[in-house]
What we know:
Helix content is 35%, strand content 10%. With 917 residues, it is of the alpha+beta class. The strands form 12 sheets. The protein has a 5-stranded parallel beta sheet, covered by helices on one side. Strands 25-24-28 form a 3-stranded antiparallel beta sheet, with no helix packed on it. Strands 1-7 form a two-stranded parallel sheet. Helix 15 (587-633) runs antiparallel to helix 23 and helix 21 (793-819) packs antiparallel against helix 22. The termini are far apart.
Amino acid sequence: MESDRGKQYSLDQSMFERLVREDNCLSPAQLDVQRRMRPEISELIRQTIYPDHRHEEDSPEEGTKSKSNGWEVEMVCSLVRHLVRQGKYRSNDIAILTPYTGQLQKLRRHLSGTFEVVISDRDQEALERDGLHLEPVTLQGEFKAAKKVGLDKLLRVATVDNFQGEEAEVVIISLVRSNEQGKVGFLKTKNRINVLLSRAKQGMYIIGNAETAATVPMWNDVCEILQKRDSMGLKLPLSCPRHPEKAILVEEPEDFLRFAPEGGCDLTCDKLQAVCQHPCPKICSDPCGKCLVPVDDVPCYQARFPERIKCPRKVLKTVPDCGHNVEAFCGTDTSDPRFLCPTPCLEQLYCGHQCGGTCGTCFALDDADDEHELVARTIAHQPCGNICGRGFTTCSHMCTKRCHEGTECGVCQAPCEVKCGHTKCPKVCSDSCAPCAELCKWTCEHEGRCPLPCAAPCERLPCGERCNRQLSCGHQCPTVCGEICPGQEYCQICCKDDKREQEVDLLEFNTYGSVNLDTDPILILGCGHFFTRETMNLHIRLDKVYCGDQDGYFNGITYPSGDLEQPFPSCPKCRQPLRQYSVRRYGRVINMAILEQMTKRYISSSASKYTSMVSEVATIETGFRDSMDRFLRELLSPSASQKKMREDIEQRISSLRRTSDLQQPAQKLYEITVSQKKRISDNTSPITALYIGLDKRSHILAKLLKAQVDLVKTMEWFLILNNIKKPSATLGNLSVTIDWLTGLIKTSMPEAINNCSEAIREACEQSFWAFEIEGHTYLAGLVAIWRQLPPTPDSQKGLDQAFDDAKAGLQKSAQLCTEGKFRNIRTLKKMVEAAEKRLQEDSFYQAVTHEELGRVVETMTGEFTTQGHWYRCANDHPFAIGECGLPMEEALCPECGANFKGYHHQLVAGVKAEEWA
């Protein structure tokens, strides 16, 4: 123990030393003979092979004062690997000692990738005490193994103080300290030095700075002994077991790999093979393996068994089973049943992609008869590994998933492409964009400025004049008036020949150099391609949104009813979508298409969210039923159960309300556009034709689902109320709880009925007859519960009015079910009949199961997917049909029952294509 105060009490002496000093009758004797270690090692400690170096120690790491030396870590690790690779010693014969926990941590970290490093519990505690945390290590025996490994795979690393009483065949010591001040640290006491130097049995390596250590008298004696034996120096001598005459000296850690790879040397092996007696031609460090000496142009190990030699040359062979000619090795038997024909399978899979398998993997042979003739071939194509590549109908992106035939692509997760001169949408494609509300930048001296927001379809006329501004080269701009002037590389006079020879007039096939820009200027698209004004006008079909005179000049605006009969406007050459920021002239067409895409994405996304919400409502309803008995048992202290039920319901209601907020950006644009039009004109008649495409379907669905939640919640409260009204010895008097539940139902009833009535009204206005019927059944259920409660003078008038409304609604619903042709009429008719029975009887019936209701609402989302082609029926309801394009047979609108049919891909009157080419 190193303590000045401890020396006063002889704490620096062992118990044996104190016993000998105090008792004169005992005469000590020194052991002169020992057989545990080699004499060369024991001589170092009786009197009191050293790789010396001058690499300074590392600075202490943050949070610890323990010392370390990175160079010694690398040297120790290289030496351990060298000794183990030579085969004389295994890793469990070696121990690595160091006086510092900082060095212990680094040694463990570097060696753990090659060996199973073990440390003692005391060293582990010392590491944690010094703040040197590391991933868990393996502990064995007293050290507790973390995983099953052979004992010969373990490597012991320890501090000097915690290795007392132990020994190893070979000990490698890292002294760590190396500094100009000569500070030795822990290893300046004789006891520690004695322990350190007496742990090895056969070999010991001391790696450290001799000049620093020699400042301690005992270390100075050790250094002198080692110097006399020539066992200390700046280079460490190594020996190759196959070539002991080869002198190998290493000075740096990387020298082990350079001069003694794999524990050997860099000479030729020359070891004689056991069978053929050929000398091994490989490097000493490489394993000999099979004899590769050439014998008659083949390796020796093959020449001993000629019958096993296979010709390595490839030849053309015929596969008997399929008849394909394939290139195979000469010795390959193509008639062997195990041989698989490598010819690519050229068949087209059901998904439309070509099969990626081979003839041998896709076509298997059935059992053959006695004469070994082919009976049949079973086709088993490999799963398609191609990229789906189907285009989303809600945007211009392609599905990048692996082919998933039979399942839909889902919603697009690519970055949104919507961009204008003010900003770029940062969301993913499937999310609703925030339309730019800044003032449109399209302006020119002839037609003025577009008065609407940037994202709204423009309402100024396109200018047909050539831009009169000059380019940087001094020549007149070649584009249409109002467009952004390009660089001089687009100048008709200064441009390069390849641009001048480009075909820009797709009507008369004229090149850029031959067109008259004064009569037909060009338009430069965002992709870099450019075409004449007339070519782009016809390609974009500008006459669909503007009306013109006989001379081809536009003189008015048309208001299509929200539909474009063409795909998203794109470049005629590369098909890259046009963007309003790059070509302002077509802002009206482009913004119409963007708003239609926003509507489609909103419909698809909200339908997906709605489907998941349906399952949540089913879970809530099931939970109510399952927990009713438990609720009644706990009713004497009901606050926790009641609170939990209310929180569960309100949480889902909040998520349903957020559904209608998805389209608020488009609603905001609509309001800004209307406000701007009112400000600039007293005539507001065109306001209704802004074709923003606001979709009410998902908004109504959200309200209906909330009405269903309200009905489920109120119904369960009512059932609980009926149960606790019955006499029960276990529940006792619950009059307070009965009054609370009754008041709770009455308080929530007006809001629930009002929400349901709003959903019914909006569904009727939008001709969603199936939604209206569903709303009437929910309203009847709420009124039926209300009628079972004790009436009050204040609520009786509202109850009578609600009863009349529910009764009239059910009568209208029954008539719609009789005359209508929309989907789920049979199920809806059963719902109406059950609702009529509930409304008329004195007791409350649950005639329609939750499963039936769930099938209805889930079916109502099934028509809206991201696949297929989109259309609107005569009542302006959007829907999608299959991949083929236009309808081929008569069908009904799933929402209102309006007819739409197709014969040979022709649409009937009233049905409008959202997009088709």
